[in-house]
Design brief:
Layout (H helix, E strand, L loop, with lengths): L3 E10 L4 E9 L2 E6 L9 E2 L4 E4 L1 E6 L1 H6 L9 H14 L2 E10 L13 H13 L6 E9 L5 H5 L8 E7 L11 H12 L3 H33 L2 E5 L4 H10 L3 E3 L4 H10 L2 E5 H6 L9 H6 L5 E3 L6 H13 L2 H6 L3 H6 L16 E7 L2 E9 L2 E2 L2
Length: about 375
């Protein structure tokens, strides 16, 4: 851990404004913020670059991509964890909730087995050994439409410090996959299914949801409480689904698929998360509501990189262009996700908070990352 990091002559992205000034990190905490143009001896002259809090990622599938870089290719897990960690650090992410699927299907061509408990053990071991550059927490993706959700959840406990449990219902014909053609494109490419195999897959998932869906949802909600985790909904589509999420004690909504659902989230006090790729591409790859539409309607609170880690920082500058408000946009990738996850020690440039800070230059509207500090240690 470094002794002192002094970033001067920077445009500080504060919660409510941008100000020229300096940030001092001593040990692992921010110890001074000064609004002046001084560059004291030993300070890093940021030459007018932005200095802002480190990015906070609540939902990313990136670790799974490193564990299985190709279908049925199982990569060694510690090297995969370290590569994932280094990749996130290189994009300005200093806190991540690693999404691990919980709930398996052992029938049909698209079946898949349990992996979360073993991988979580390896992740927690690497964290305890100090192998990571950035801060890692567990996010369990509870697959309602599965055969083994509750027994897999039972393998976790409060000692695992599970930060988030999200309720995932990928039953065909609703939520994310209302359009079965989008689902067919996705699974056919991933699993190389024939038309008959796809029809069997759809029927199998619908049967599982009808038989186990209610039991699994209630059980996952109870398990989240046992862990002390924040509960998240996923792909809410209707106001009724949002009402159910609120009744379950959900804290924030991941990727609502319609404006109706996002508006209902606002009415129930649920923060709305949307994907950075959706915002940057101008629309959802599944044909759902565009993140930009929600941003323009004032219905967007949190951005997630989802499946493109480098998209998180870029999305903040896209959002700043929509809102003409960089501090509010940066809050969607720093302060707001920190609050949603119950982390009060990071997400803002403020004395006493963690020394998680990034330095950013711009080329037009494209951010160029110039430095990343995690707990005062430069990691990229």
């Amino acid at each position: 851990m470094s002794d002192v990091v002094h970033l001067a002559n920077a445009r500080l992205v504060l919660p409510d404004r941008i100000a020229m000034g300096r940030v001092v990190i001593t040990g692992d905490q921010i110890t001074e913020i000064a609004e002046d143009g001084n560059v004291p001896p030993g300070a890093i002259d940021c030459q007018g670059d932005y200095v802002m809090p480190g990015l906070i990622e609540l939902h990313t599938d990136n670790l799974e991509r490193h564990i299985e870089p190709r279908p049925k290719v199982d990569w060694p897990h510690l090297p995969a964890l370290l590569a994932h960690d280094a990749e996130l650090a290189s994009t300005g992410i200093t806190t991540v909730f690693d999404a691990l699927r919980v709930g398996s299907i052992h029938t049909g061509k698209a079946g898949y087995g349990a992996y979360a408990r073993n991988l979580a053990d390896e992740l927690l071991g690497a964290r305890a050994a100090g192998h990571f550059k950035i801060s890692h927490f567990l996010h369990l993706r509870a697959e309602i439409c599965s055969e083994t959700l509750l027994e897999e959840l039972a393998a976790f406990g409060p000692e695992d410090r599970v930060g988030i449990v999200s309720l995932m219902d990928h039953t065909p014909g609703q939520r994310q996959f209302r359009d079965l053609s989008a689902l067919k494109t996705y699974v056919s490419k991933k699993r190389n299914m024939s038309d008959a195999e796809f029809a069997e897959h759809v029927a199998n998932l619908k049967e599982l949801q009808a038989r186990l869906g209610a039991q699994h949802e209630q059980g996952a909600v109870a398990e989240a409480r046992r862990f002390g985790a924040v509960l998240a909904s996923h792909d809410d589509t209707t106001a009724e689904q949002v009402q159910t999420s609120a009744a379950n004690g959900v804290g924030f909504a991941e990727f609502p698929t319609t404006r109706e659902a996002a508006a209902a989230c606002r009415a129930h006090g649920l923060a709305v998360m949307m994907g950075a790729p959706n915002l940057i591409r101008g629309g959802s790859h599944s044909g759902n509501v565009a993140a930009r539409e929600l941003a323009e309607a004032g219905l967007l609170n949190i951005i997630s990189s989802d499946y493109v880690p480098a998209a998180l920082l870029l999305s903040a500058f896209h959002l700043a262009d929509i809102w003409d408000d960089l501090p509010a946009a940066v809050a969607c990738v720093t302060h707001n996700p920190a609050q949603a996850a119950g982390l009060n020690d990071r997400g803002r440039l403020e004395v006493g908070l963690r020394g998680d800070v990034i330095r950013v230059r711009t080329a037009g509207q494209t951010p160029l990352l110039r430095g990343v500090w995690s707990r005062g240690l430069r990691v990229a």
